Queue: 2 jobs
Job 1
Amino acid sequence: MPVLLKNQTSGQLHASLAQAGVSPHLARRLLAAAVKRGELPALGSDLTARLRDDLRALTEIPHLTPVRKVVSPQDGFTKYLFEGRGTGQFEAVRIPLLHRPDDLKYVACISSQVGCALGCAFCATGRMGFKRNLAAWEMVDQVVQMQADSPHPIRGVVFMGMGEPLLNYDAVMTAIGVLSEPCGMAIAAKAITLSTVGIIPGIRRFTAERQRARLVVSLTSADPRQRRELLPVEQGNPTPDLIQALREYHAASGQRVTLAWTMMSGVNVGEVDAQRLAELTRGLPIKLDLIDVNDPTGRFRPPSRAELEAFRDALRVTLAMPVARRYSGGQDIQADCGMLAPPDSTDQEV
Ligand code: SF4
């Protein structure tokens, strides 16, 4: 099996190719040339013509196949459909930073799995079921290809596309390594966000390894019974244990924990929901991101303006922590949160 060059950090590449004569410096050059130009590096003191011939035989630079690209006329969000090596197609979204019109850069929202096993009640990806984990290079190449297609730099990456990243832990962490290395995509680790629906063993491992990417946990309800209905992951990852894991993460990292709250009219935006959240997280510094639900089935609707204002008021009084409302763009091209699913991949209930 050839060594896939976007599939390993430079340190891993050095370990894989040291016997062939690859130095740590050359491993960094190999990674840089693979992600920036899709080729082997130029000859140099550490890369003779003979070693380059050997590396042609020993390595490969894989590429995703771009299948489709759709740009939102509404807000410029751009959705890409890719094929990798293995079952199924997957999507990624290029997000323009609309709130900073003079600061021309993008954030890449990428997928970590094809489909998802977790079946959140309001998510199109969940309705696909799980197809497979993506390899690290398949995550890296979503960003590489988006960057090649973009007039401005990609300065951040969010693992909020298809799949639960903590259920593909090793490959996701390798991809973060390649994306953040100066010789890789050079995207600062703190500008890379991993969004989880609350996989407790993954959060504990993330904490123990002192990973530097940002962590966002989709809580959405502070009532375990309601949460189990909305997010079936609750069954094996109960809310009290999840919050305990987040307290440990905060204690180890000093980071404020960002919780995401998918708002659903008449479901989780009442005063009682704000009170439960405040009780559950007492003593834990959090930041709450509010996101409107986008349910392809129409079962859940975003809150009305009055509901939203009342919920924010209740949060201000009971929670007294920073609260932000996140814009979920690309709605006209189904690129918004919870809507990623390639055509024909969901079952008929959609
Ligand atoms: Fe999976 Fe995330 Fe969708 Fe839940 S919201 S089903 S974890 S992709």
Note: The first strand starts at residue 3 and ends at 4.
Job 2
Amino acid sequence: MLKLDAIEMREIRLPLKQPFVTASGVQDCRRILLLEISARTGETAWSECVAQETPHYSPETIDTAWFAIREWFVPALKGHDIHAPSDILIPLRVFRGHRMAKAALEMACWNLEAQRTDTSLATLLGGTQRRVPAGIAIGMQPEESMLVERVQDSLGQGYRNVKIKIGPGADVRCVEAIRSGIGADVPLSVDANASYTLADIELLRTLDTYGLTMIEQPLAQDDLVRHAALQAQLSTPVCLDESITGPDRVEDMVRLRSGRVVNVKPGRVGGLSAAISIHNVCRKSRLDAWVGGMLETGIGRAYNVALASLPGFTLPGDLSPSSRYWACDIVQPEWTMSPDGFVEAPWDRTGLGVEVDRSRIDDLTCRLERLVW
Ligand code: MG
């Protein structure tokens, strides 16, 4: 049983090596909420809340997560025993939404449990893959020639899949430039972050002719019905990201045939327990699944790599090495990728399998609050 003692919330600011551009905006620095939870038995666990600075990807932000944890979640958890990591969510069921804030708490409990049982997080989650294939997400570029160059460069680095961000005005021409410049058979996906409607069907049908691995979240985040209508007209698999907020939504997706691939992000679905349940539904229903990324630091990356080692993750995860985003990560060793595009799940190390660089985090901290259970 886990007996929690205290929680420290910190905000750090980590500049990205290059600005990341999507259909919803530009990011050049990440404001990141880190949690450090201590147990009465002496273990401490770091976790990362993936909420962004603004409510573009989801309604949550780093500031709403900070508020929810301090004002509602920690007071509600006082006096509750935690027998299994997901138990921390039981007293939080009365609070709707705020999945990324809840996930940060729940994921830390998995880490504490791994330490308590002296096992790796990957083993504790049920992982079986020791080497996890990695894909890369490339943001929008000012010119198509730059995009082609970046895709070429990524393939040269060994990435097993390349995903480009698309949006109205930066879609078919980008895909055409890559296909004609690099080749018709390189593994390529597109992610629209919900920026189209069924009125764009002709454009989406054109994208369907390029042999893409998937078209990710073309339509609105809360709409499974229109995604089903779209999937019926496309041979390219539709992948859902923003639409999948929990295991029930994947079951609905299966029933409605809203797509054939799921991008699983533990933060988006409320934690690792929900992510594992979604993985299980995908496996049973023969949907492809992969672990997505949210521009995490090496702490969030450690959780994603452990999750991606489960057997039902059939496509490369968004698991770029630390050096892709950050001049210097906050973990040691930094995450790296082999020349053939695989990340090693650290099976032989307890917990996350990486050391958190506390002094670097101290240097980067701009807000700190300690809450006692
Ligand atoms: Mg996406």
Note: The chain has 13 helices and 15 strands.
